[in-house]
Design goal:
By secondary structure, this protein is mainly beta. The protein has helices at residues 85-93, 173-177, 183-187; strands at 5-7, 30-33, 38-44, 50-57, 75-77, 95-100, 102-109, 112-119, 126-136, 142-152, 163-165, 167-168, 199-202.
Length: 236
């Protein structure tokens, strides 16, 4: 799965030339993006042009009646996108790309988990495959929201989790955003990166709190000097 991500170097987004979008001004580094918070999304606008904007992370299906009783749909499984009613329309008509430069995953028991930071070599920016939807609240206000698509983990990620986010190579951006693209062909894009496409290292427990968003979240964890003392883990 993917429940936290980073965009710690928004000034490098211009490296994603294949997106062919204008990025919003005033973007600040993000070291711990969490569900329900805004995330950057590239998509097609209502007139078919590409745009880059910020959406809520956690898909709210358009048919939702009561937001408070709807779970945060932060991820969508690639294998069932075309079948599951919750995601089917978004997969067909509302696909998006979500720029980032890293994400987190945890290893261990629920109350003794070691967080790891995963990124591409050189901390280059990349794009998650995503879908979005539009929900109209009781006051008539539109809320656009998105989910990150996940697939089976590759060998590199499997020691941490059996799922991983789909990271699309730039060569696939055009097809993914094309509103005329065949769903069958799109399904073939939703595969894990090659095992040598990512790197990882352990980090400390700051990332466990969605309220913490600062550079220390991605700082490599160093083993304590005291003999017998374990790693810095979140135990709340």
């Amino acid at each position: 799965m993917c429940a936290r991500a980073t965009l710690k170097a928004p000034d490098r987004l211009e490296e994603l030339r294949e997106l062919r979008v204008t990025f919003p001004g005033g973007l600040v580094p993000r070291y711990n993006m969490a569900p329900t918070q805004p995330i950057l999304v590239a998509r097609l606008s209502s007139d078919g042009a590409r745009e880059c904007t910020q959406l809520r992370w956690g898909l709210i299906p358009s048919y939702t009646k009561q937001l408070a009783k709807t779970p945060a749909l932060i991820n969508a499984r690639a294998e069932t996108l075309a079948e599951k009613f919750t995601f089917r329309h978004s997969f067909q008509k509302r696909r998006c790309l979500i720029p980032a430069d890293g994400f987190y995953e945890w290893k261990g028991e629920p109350r003794k988990r070691q967080p790891f930071y995963i990124h591409e070599p050189g901390h280059a920016p990349f794009c998650f495959a995503g879908i979005w939807d539009r929900w109209i609240d009781p006051d008539g206000r539109a809320i656009d929201s998105a989910a990150i698509i996940t697939t089976a983990a590759n060998e590199f990620m499997r020691p941490l989790h059996d799922r991983m986010p789909v990271i699309l190579p730039p060569v696939d951006f055009e097809q993914w955003l094309d509103s005329r693209a065949d769903a069958g062909g799109l399904q073939e894009l939703l595969r894990p990166l090659p095992d040598d496409g990512l790197e990882m290292y352990a980090v400390g427990s700051l990332v466990n709190s969605a309220k913490v968003d600062r550079p220390e979240c991605v700082r490599p964890w160093e083993a304590p000097a005291e003999p017998g003392r374990g790693p810095l883990l979140w135990t709340e």
